[in-house]
TrEMBL record:
InterPro entries hit by this protein: AB_hydrolase_fold, Dienelactn_hydro
Residues of the Dienelactone hydrolase domain: 37-189
GO molecular function: hydrolase activity
Name assigned to this protein: Dienelactone hydrolase domain-containing protein
Amino acid sequence: MSLTAACCNTPPTQNAHWHNKGEEATLTREIAGKKVKTYRTGPKTSKRGIVAIYDIFGYHPTTYQFFDRLAESHGGFQVSVPDFFPQGGYDPNGMGDFPKLLKWIDDNGDFKKNHIDDIIKAAVEDLRKDGCTTFSVIGQCWGALMAAKAASEEGHPFVATGGPHPSFYSIETIKDVSAPLIILASKDEADMVPVIESLKHRNFPIECFHKRFDNMHHGWTGGRGDWDVPEQYQAGLEAVDLLGAFYAKAASAAESKL
């Protein structure tokens, strides 16, 4: 798997701010004997659920804003953002140290070893209890890989997957994805068109989607983003709109079969 250099070299922003619209909750089911908190946002009347996976910096003002706005887009979604890194995200002081970052991800962000798969499933269970009937999964950077893995599991419930500025995406790493995929790449990622094209032969209910934001850096919708900067804010709103439209379309297609 390849990791974009910007993921290793670009630190989180320090001056971003946002007044959270959601609330902290605890997943009903314990994972590996531990309680897991999650950030819940969006209209509680929505029957469309999204499990969201933040980037390696964990909760961050721009990350909260991104998911709050996504939750309110295109008719609304109930969004659950579990805390996969309860000890905190990656130390910004370690930026630029590629081996250190990869080891940290292996120690803290492995899909199976760190029970990320189980946490995602528990988040789905709670969304279902709260009235959701369709489910999607989205991630930022490293989280986008986790979202792809979740939508590659046998019997998964997701009607759509993907996310902005993905890390570790390649034809090989997404080859088992069995849900429509959306990729919003920044200028720092490799060409993602072949990745999307590799799924075109799948008989998905809706087409996969790709757009490249050539004026945005890796991580602009998450910990590396500062939406007080007008260009980042406008690109962020466009990303939210594209993602919301894609997930709403996937949910609508699934609802038509319920």
